[in-house]
Amino acid sequence: MRYLEDRSHDAEMVVEVLEPQATDDAVQQYAARTNRLVLTSDQDFLARDYPTLFQEDDKMSAFEVAEIVDVIADAMSQSQLMQAGGAKLVEDWL
Predict the structure, then answer these.
(1) Burial of residue 85, with CB atoms counted within 10 A of its CB: 0-12 exposed, 13-18 middle, 19 or more buried
(2) Is 12 within 8 Å of 53 (Cβ atoms)?
(3) Which residue has the higher pLDDT, 31 or 91?
(4) Which of 5, 45, 52, 57 is the most buried (most CB within 10 A)?
(5) pLDDT band at 63, cuts 50/70/90?
(6) Among residues 91, 69, 54, which one has the least CA distance to residue 4?
(7) What span, in angstroms and rounded, lies between the C-alpha atoms of 14 and 94?
(8) Are 89 and 68 in contact (CB under 8 A)?
(9) Contact, 92 vs 60, CB < 8 A?
(10) Cβ distance 61 to 88 under 8 Å?
(11) What is the per-residue DSSP string for 4-30?
């Protein structure tokens, strides 16, 4: 999260704003209420059809993820990402 914040992205960790065992429903409701995309590697969340930045595996470092989020943010606005349903984060974005 620090790398996202260092790049001026407004990021929050679920465990800091919701209960540690928050359900996907609670996460989605919070994201919708606060107009946020969700960054996750949880396959189940993708089935929800909620705008999500999806990291397929945890092999990328937090720095690499932040770099990719920057590339996406330069290419598309948040509203465009919301309309598109999000994006899959892959190392090829770098």
Answers:
(1) exposed
(2) no
(3) 31
(4) 52
(5) very high
(6) 69
(7) 26
(8) yes
(9) no
(10) no
(11) HHHTT-----HHHHS-TT--HHHHHHH
Number of domains in the chain: 1
b or e along 46-58 (b: 16 or more beta carbons within 10 Å of the residue's beta carbon)?
A: beeebbbbbbeee
- Domain containing 39 equals 2-93
Confidence tier at 25 by pLDDT (50, 70, 90): very high
Residue with tokens 């909620």: 50
CA distances (Å), 42 to each of 12, 45, 67, in order? Answer: 17, 6, 20
